Amino acid sequence: xxxxxxxxxxxxxxxxxxxxxxxxxxxxxxxxxxxxxxxxxxxxxxxxxxxxxxxxxxxxxxxxxxxxxxxxxxxxxxxxxxxxxxxxxxxxxxxxxxxxxxxxxxxxxxxxxxxxxxxxxxxxxxxxxxxxxxxxxxxxxxxxxxxxxxxxxxxxxxxxxxxxxxxxxxxxxxxxxxxxxxxxxxxxxxxxxxxxxxxxxxxxxxxxxxxxxxxxxxxxxxxxxx
Length: 226
What we know:
Blueprint: E1 5-9, H1 14-23, E2 28-36, H2 50-60, E3 63-68, H3 74-87, E4 92-94, H4 101-114, E5 117-119, H5 127-136, E6 140-147, H6 164-170, E7 182-188, E8 198-206, E9 209-216
Parallel strand pairs: 1-2, 1-4, 2-3, 4-5
Antiparallel strand pairs: 6-7, 6-9, 8-9
């Protein structure tokens, strides 16, 4: 059976990884699409460095496709990027949306404009169930952004773990951070060819959010890990 040729909308976080895991047997995943700011220095969704995102895609065996935009031009830039994927024979694009219908509708609208099919394998599944599945999978995802007052900067750099779920519940935090309580960056997974080694950098405050800069470990050049 020929599997449809597909890409994934890649944030670098746990939900994108879970979406890849959920579809890799049904689709021929060949590339990861990540949107960056106008300078190309940070990913739009999670503020990750381009070399870190490239390392994640490399570990998954995916070609990284990037585009730059401001928040005001995001919709058009994303649709244009999807059109380029379609020209490369991509027919399906995977998204990691979980809860909000407007997020799914946005993805479906952009894909329809570009002539590809949006795939939402996680949508509608309980975030409690998804959190448990993710932790049990053996994937290592570090917290790179936290939002006060739910969480403070002491949580940055921590890997998601089963014991966090009870703390989240006591603080009114969605298990998967669906109200923006936290974001993650995946640094290891059974789907990775090898881990991504990172060093914690500076912490930056943006309003209620505190973000941790993850720097690709330069102690061992990435090419030398092969």
